[in-house]
Every structure is written in structure tokens, then in C-alpha cells.
Amino acid sequence: MKYRTLSGLLATALLFGCSSSEEIVPDVPPSELYADAQVALQSGNWLTAIEQLEALDSRYPFGAYSEQVQLDLIYAYYKNDDLPLGLATIERFMRLNPTHDKIDWVLYMRGLTHMAQDRNFMHDIFNVDRSDRDPEPVKAAFADFKRLLERYPNSQYANDARQRMLSLTNRLAEYDLATADFYLRREAWIAAINRAQELQRTFPETEAARKSLRIQLEAYEKLGLDEPAQRTRELIDLNPI
């Protein structure tokens, strides 16, 4: 009952916030409102920019600034950590403007937004290891950057996308390593070996793949499998951390 009451209060607050935002933004000509939004964007006042851009988008959905307003909203939502709204705006823009000349940038922003979903500022502050967190946003970001490189290899965002894909590869490899270690600590020896070997096949160039050999070795030793354990020791010698 308390949960429903709290949910109801939150919903009311959100509705009130949405309805009152239109009152905050003055009813001025679209050119003036757009100019004000640009000033807010340039000064990093993301919340004000979002309010003004949302007002433009709702009042003049087919106006002269329509496409640019949506592009600006994508950026402002990202900077303000309004990630679900950012992704929804990206999907809307790509659906309505599949051949737009800035679609490579939109793809790039979708990758950045998915990457941001994997970020937790409290974890950053306290330097908490996040390797065991659900990697679905990371997989989505990797797919976005891959699509960007495939469709727009000469895009000005291609090099950065390539570098980010390397970082994402390491993040995914660390997740598999954490999973293999979890199985090891639960004494699920076969599961630990399978996950370690899958990591080695999928991300062979990563440090996590080299670390997984030690998990594999311990699991083989616990199972009393001498020959696989010896082969793993040889692999460890050939692939030092």
C-alpha cells in the first residue's frame, strides 16, 4: 500500500512538472525561443535548454526548426543524463529522417547514450568495480558503433567509435571474467571452465582472457584433471599477465 501511495505521488509530481514546464517557457515566436535555447545549450544550462526545446517541439512539430530541435534535444538529454528520453528521441528521429545528413552523428549519440546507461556516478566516485553489472547497454553501444563504421566508414565520428569499441570489448570481457570467477567461488567447476574458455574464444586479445586461464587452471585442479591442467599452465606461461 505504501508503494502504491509513493508511486501515485511520484506520478502526480511528474505530471505536475510536465504541465508546469509549458507555463515556464514564454509564448514567444519560434525564432526567439530557438535562439534562447541555443544560448542555454552553449552555456551548458541543459535543463533550461530542454524546457525550451521541448516547448518548440510540442508547439511547432512541423516548423522550420523541427529537425534541428530534435537533434539539439538528443544532445541536451545526453548531457543532462535523461537517457531514456534521449534514446526515445533518437529512435523517433531515425524513423522520421532515415536519410538525414547527420544520421551518422545520431548513430554515434545512440552509442554514447547506451554507454552512459552503463555508468553510475556513485561507482565512479568510490571507484567501485562494475565488471559484474548487466552488460546489455554495453552490447547495444557496441552494435551502434559497429553500425556507424559499417554504414559511414568515413564519418568524422568513425575514429572515436573505433576507440570506444575497444573499450567496450574490454568491458564485456571483464563481465565474462567476473562470471567465470563467480562460478569458481560457487565451486561450479565445469561452468567456470566453460565460461573461461568462451571468454578466450570471444575476446582472445584482452587481459581478461589471460586472467581467465588461472580460473580455468584452478577448476581443472579441483576436478583432478591433470592433463588439461598442465596444458593450461603452459598457456599461462605463454600468455603472462
TrEMBL record:
<feature type="domain" description="Outer membrane lipoprotein BamD-like">
    <location>
        <begin position="27"/>
        <end position="233"/>
    </location>
</feature>
<dbReference type="GO" id="GO:0051205">
    <property type="term" value="P:protein insertion into membrane"/>
</dbReference>
<keyword id="KW-0564">Palmitate</keyword>
<protein>
    <recommendedName>
        <fullName>Outer membrane protein assembly factor BamD</fullName>
    </recommendedName>
</protein>
<dbReference type="InterPro" id="IPR017689">
    <property type="entry name" value="BamD"/>
</dbReference>
<dbReference type="GO" id="GO:0043165">
    <property type="term" value="P:Gram-negative-bacterium-type cell outer membrane assembly"/>
</dbReference>
<keyword id="KW-0472">Membrane</keyword>
<keyword id="KW-0449">Lipoprotein</keyword>
<comment type="similarity">
    <text>Belongs to the BamD family.</text>
</comment>
<keyword id="KW-0732">Signal</keyword>
<dbReference type="Pfam" id="PF13525">
    <property type="entry name" value="YfiO"/>
</dbReference>
<comment type="function">
    <text>Part of the outer membrane protein assembly complex, which is involved in assembly and insertion of beta-barrel proteins into the outer membrane.</text>
</comment>
<dbReference type="InterPro" id="IPR039565">
    <property type="entry name" value="BamD-like"/>
</dbReference>
<dbReference type="InterPro" id="IPR011990">
    <property type="entry name" value="TPR-like_helical_dom_sf"/>
</dbReference>
<keyword id="KW-0998">Cell outer membrane</keyword>
<dbReference type="GO" id="GO:1990063">
    <property type="term" value="C:Bam protein complex"/>
</dbReference>
<comment type="subunit">
    <text>Part of the Bam complex.</text>
</comment>
